[in-house]
């Protein structure tokens, strides 16, 4: 599979079943669970199921999804960044999460900038949104740095808390 996009420091590529140990680690990070949610991934086998039913199924259905972000120099997986199509949002949604050791390093900005450009330029999206827990101040700041603007609060159909919606339009 070819890379989705690249920057000087990171490569964004499709996730594969070989990424299951990394996905297990990321999805069980306490910050991931607190800010994004508990995906119920308790084993590497669970991570394989998550990859098959989630990102890989979305690739097959829509041609995009959450992708692996790896360091260009070492090919070490450090996070995920990609595009989701949620049933309850009209536009594709930018999502990202990184392992603790790689937060605050600019890697999320690198990857998210490249993925956002891919959505707007290559996929010709007219608008891209992102949702974030209001207390997740680092992600809120990152979305602002990407040029996304807050447009109110929304609530997923199965959620108990509102999340902040950000958006950026093409052009």
Describe the fold and architecture.
This protein is α+β, with helices and mostly antiparallel strands and 171 residues long. The chain has one domain (5-169): Gcn5-related N-acetyltransferase (GNAT) (Aminopeptidase). 33% of the residues lie in helices and 27% in strands. It has six helices and eight strands, in the order ββααααβββαβαββ. Helix 3 (44-53) runs parallel beside helix 4. The chain is globular, with a radius of gyration of 15 Å. The two termini are 30 Å apart.
Write the layout of secondary structure elements.
Layout: E1 5-6, E2 10-14, H1 20-27, H2 30-35, H3 44-53, H4 55-62, E3 66-71, E4 77-84, E5 92-98, H5 107-122, E6 127-132, H6 137-145, E7 149-154, E8 163-169
Helix pairs in contact: 1-3, 3-4
Give a summary of the structure in a few sentences.
With 171 residues, this protein is an alpha+beta fold.
């Amino acid at each position: 599979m070819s890379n989705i996009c690249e920057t000087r420091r990171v490569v964004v590529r499709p996730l594969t079943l070989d990424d299951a140990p990394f996905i297990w680690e990321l999805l069980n990070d306490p910050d991931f669970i607190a800010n994004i949610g508990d995906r119920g991934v308790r084993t590497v086998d669970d991570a394989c199921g998550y990859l098959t039913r989630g990102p890989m199924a979305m690739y097959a259905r829509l041609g995009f999804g959450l992708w692996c972000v790896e360091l260009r120099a070492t090919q070490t997986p450090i996070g995920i960044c990609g595009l989701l199509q949620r049933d309850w949002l009209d536009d594709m949604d930018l999502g990202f999460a990184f392992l603790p050791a790689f937060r605050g390093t600019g890697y999320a900005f690198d990857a998210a900038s490249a993925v956002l450009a891919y959505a707007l330029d290559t996929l010709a999206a007219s608008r891209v949104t992102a949702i974030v827990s209001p207390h997740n101040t680092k992600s809120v700041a990152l979305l602002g740095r990407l040029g996304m603007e807050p447009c109110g609060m929304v609530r997923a159909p199965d959620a108990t808390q509102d999340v902040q919606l950000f958006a950026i339009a093409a052009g």
